[in-house]
Each structure stands twice: as C-alpha cells, then as structure tokens.
Design brief:
CATH architecture of the largest domain: 2-Layer Sandwich
Low-confidence stretches: none
CATH class of the largest domain: Alpha Beta
Number of helices: 11
Mean pLDDT: 87
Number of strands: 8
Strand order of the largest sheet: 1-4
Number of domains: 3
CATH topology of the largest domain: Alpha-Beta Plaits
Length: 267
C-alpha cells in the first residue's frame, strides 16, 4: 500500500507542477507577446518569397514589415512586378496606378561589334571583372563601354539580359529591375530606369569627339544639338555626355531626330 500511495502522490505532484507550468507559459505568452500588424502578415503573403534582397531589404519578411510601416512603397518588390504591387496597394489602401510604376534595366552602350573599334584580343579568363583589371581595360579602344563578357547575364535569375552583337541587351518584357546586373557590372553602365521612359542615351563615353571618333562610331559627341531641340529642359550635356531627365521628358523625340550620332534611342 505504501508503494501505491507513493506512486499516486508522485503522479498528483507531477500533475500539479505540469498544470502550474502550463499556466505560467500561457501568462508569459500573453504578457510578452509581440503584436504583429495584420497588414504586415497580408503583405508577406502576397510577396513571391524569393528572399533575393533585390528590394534593398534582408528578405521578404523585412520588406513586408517596412511596407506595413509605410517605410517602403507598395512596389518595393521588383520581382513581383505590377501585379504584386497592385495587390499590396489594395492592402495598404494606396493608389495602385501610382505605386505600380514599373522599372527596367538599361545598358548605356551601343558599341556593337560593327561600331566599337578593337585594339586587341585577350586570352585567358573572359569575364567583365577580369577585363576591368587588365591594363587597357578590355579589347575595345573605348574603355568606358560594355565589355560584352556576360557577367550580368550570369547573375540574372529571369533570363532578361543577354549578350547580343558584343554588348549586353535587356529584354524589357522579362526584366523585373532587381538590379543584380547593375551591381556586378564593373563599368557601372547599367541603370534602373522607369519603363515608361520614351528615350534614352545609349552611351557612357565621356571623351571629347576627336578622341571618341577613334574609339567608336556609336558614341555621344557631346555636341549639344539635342539640348537645343528640347523645349522642356529634359536633356543636358554633362561631361561631354547627353543625359535625359526622365521626369521632364515628354517623349516628343525631337532630340533623337536631330542627334548626329543616332544614340538617343526610342523605346
């Protein structure tokens, strides 16, 4: 009987201890619970979950929290594109049309094989990073243009950029403006621009025309003809290179029509 009483007592004591621990856990859970904004939960559910960091945040959880707090726009996720931006806009109660403005990558170089003049052939490791490190910076006389070795194509997860005729070319229908191609380009000539931009200057060479013409047949001459044509102050010449202000550009095309080098291109 003593043994049975001891077993019963032990079971009761353990049951009481378990019950008390359970009560304490429930109390602690309610006392120290961290409240999560329902909007944050809803936004996170809409995001694609790539956790690629293209938005500038440390993954989808972080950007969802930032959007819910109003610290990031509804279209902060470049991978999700317009459809995700519209859903998040609805959750946040903002204007979907304004927030869903799409962006794309743009390569500031038109130095294709028939335009860019070559000075050498490099053997060994053929990457843009390697070309940037060797004396003379690449095989072309123009040292500011696209090396065409495809570092950008290898990091693109969306098959949106390829090497075509010696230079990188963006497939705007696939580009989500994640910025990975821009981040690995040692020439820093890939920009993320509004998809609605009508015209772009497809050059990055800042040399004066006497030097430029010995390097490439498709370079900006810095002549300023485009500036004189623009009635909206949307294009300027800085450091021998034409630059378009996309906020001011109305897409009239007058600059492109008069550009003697034909490197202001229409999209």
């Amino acid at each position: 009987m003593n043994d049975i009483s001891m077993i019963i007592t032990t079971v009761i004591v353990l049951g009481v201890i378990g019950f008390l621990i359970g009560v304490l856990l429930v109390y602690a859970g309610k006392t120290f619970a961290v409240e999560v904004d329902q909007k944050e939960i809803d936004v996170r559910a809409v995001l694609p979950g790539n956790n690629c960091g293209a938005c500038g945040y440390a993954g989808c959880d972080a950007v969802a929290a930032a959007i819910a707090k109003g610290e990031a726009p509804a279209n902060a996720c470049p991978v999700g594109g317009a459809s995700v931006a519209e859903q998040i806009s609805a959750i946040m109660g903002v204007d979907a049309g304004e927030e869903a403005d799409r962006k794309v990558a743009f390569v500031r170089c038109a130095g294709t094989c028939d335009k860019a003049k070559r000075k050498s052939n490099i053997s060994g490791l053929r990457t843009c990073e390697a070309f940037a490190a060797v004396p003379g910076r690449g095989e072309k006389y123009c040292t500011q243009g696209c090396f065409g070795q495809g570092d950008c194509t290898r990091v693109c997860q969306f098959d949106a950029i390829h090497i075509v005729d010696g230079i990188a070319a963006v497939d705007r229908s696939k580009c989500v403006a994640c910025g990975m191609c821009a981040s690995v380009c040692p020439q820093h000539l890939i920009d993320i621009i509004p998809a609605k931009a009508s015209y772009t200057v497809q050059c990055s060479n800042t040399e004066r025309f006497p030097v430029l013409k010995t390097q490439c047949d498709a370079g900006c001459r810095g002549c300023g003809v485009c500036v004189k044509q623009c009635e909206h102050g949307a294009i300027t010449v800085t450091n021998n290179l034409a630059v378009i202000d996309y906020e001011k550009c109305v897409g009239c095309g007058k600059c492109a029509a008069k550009c003697p080098a034909k490197i202001i291109t229409m999209h």
